[in-house]
Amino acid sequence: MMRGGWLAVCLGWAALTAQGGALALSEPEVMVHEEGGTYVVQADFFVPVPPVRAWQVLTDFDHMAEFIPHLERSRVVQRRGLTWQVDQAGNLELGIFRFRYETQREIVLLPYRRIEGHNLGGSLRLDSQTTLTPHKQGTLIHYEARGVAEVPLPASFGASLMGERVRAQFAAIQAEILRRNGLQGG
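The chain above was modelled as a monomer; its predicted structure follows.
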């Protein structure tokens, strides 16, 4: 997928390093831009837990609608070993624009390292990859996605507003990882 930005991400994480080599806990960094009708998303954040603990939340598709804003339904409809089929639906509000989306995806799990999502259908066609990188003080999580919405968004502000929504979703995931591990965000 979008590997060219990985060096920039690593350099960005170095800039977040606090005293003693520990990474500072901060809001997810999100970049969204549009390429010919396709939205390209990159998000990065740190959690002070080992990859296995972050993995438990990142792969909890059956409960995601309970902690991710605007996600109304999320469920695993089929499990074949480390390949799952996931069905999700929700509402995306972008300023005055609002649309309902549905997505069916094949999720390929490479435990504690990577989650790959491949579009199977729906009104939001989305392919993604989430990478977990161990750090001595926790886990760096990097998300990349390319998606096409059935309903086109205004180019003048679509990427900006989509970035806000993605940031809110990953902030909720980060908070859930912290909550499940008895930690407070900060």
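The helical segments are 6-15, 51-58, 158-180.
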